[in-house]
Amino acid sequence: MEDTFTLLPLHLDPASKAVSIPSLNSPSMTSELALLNSTHRALLTLDTPNSVPPPPLPLNPKRSAAIQKMREQGNASLARKGGTASVANSQAHTQEAIKLYSYALEMALTRPSWEPASIVRDEVAILMSNRAQAHMGLQAWPEAAADAETSVELKPVPGNGKAWWRRGKCLVEMGRWEEAADWVAKGLEVGGEESAELKALGAEVQSHLTQRKERELR
């Protein structure tokens, strides 16, 4: 028995790209075509590169797990750094932590564009703050300050007091006391009140500036 099919005179609208069959009087086929055209219109409204629809899962769990694992390994390297008396070993652990944080940052920043931007922002904010701490362990104050500032720009809201403190501390170490005062004051204003370290740093900076002004007036 031979397979047979019915040749239908499909029409494609040149403007809307809608598919229709003018001479067909079939409710079921009309319904199928309506669903097809509706799906086509929905795909055209997607805000994705080249109008390509996203995959079924908007977030790749394997990438998330890899980023988290590298961050934890970086934290572990910093913890080992604190438990060694050798300066060389301490620096090696710190440099290893920086490398791990940098790998994790690269993975976070190269997520596909269809994945939620908020996930990338949170991951990068945390990793930048962590890497700032590692740079501080090597007394690389400019690098640490840059990372901490990036972390704050991505997540200035309460809960990121450590990044505010780290950049403020770097400014102090670089002798930029006025900048440190302005930075700490802004951090406390936007929600850094929960950070005891940030408040203590602010008091230290104000004390230094007051003493310096008194010396200048003598």
List the helices and strands and how they pair.
Blueprint: E1 11-12, E2 19-20, H1 27-44, H2 61-82, H3 87-109, H4 117-137, H5 141-154, H6 161-173, H7 177-190, H8 196-217
Antiparallel strand pairs: 1-2
Helix pairs in contact: 2-3, 2-4, 3-4, 4-5, 4-6, 5-6, 6-7, 6-8, 7-8
Structure description:
Helices cover 67% and strands 2% of the residues. The protein contains eight helices and two strands, in the order E-E-H-H-H-H-H-H-H-H. It has helices at 27-44, 61-82, 87-109, 117-137, 141-154, 161-173, 177-190, 196-217; strands spanning 11-12, 19-20. The protein has a two-stranded antiparallel ribbon. Helix 2 runs parallel beside helix 4. 27% of the residues are buried.
Instruction: Report the sheet with the most strands, covering strand number, pairing sense and barrel closure.
Output: 2 strands, antiparallel
Uncertain stretches of 5 or more adjacent residues: none
Q: How much helix, percentage-wise, in residues?
A: 55-70%
Question: What structural category arises from helix and sheet content?
Answer: mainly alpha
Largest sheet, spatial ordering of strands = 1-2
Strand content: under 5%
Counted by DSSP, the helix tally is 8
Number of strands: 2
Radius of gyration: 29 Å
Span between N and C termini?
111 Å
User: How would you state the average pLDDT, rounded?
Assistant: 87
Compressed to H and E, one letter per element, the order equals EEHHHHHHHH
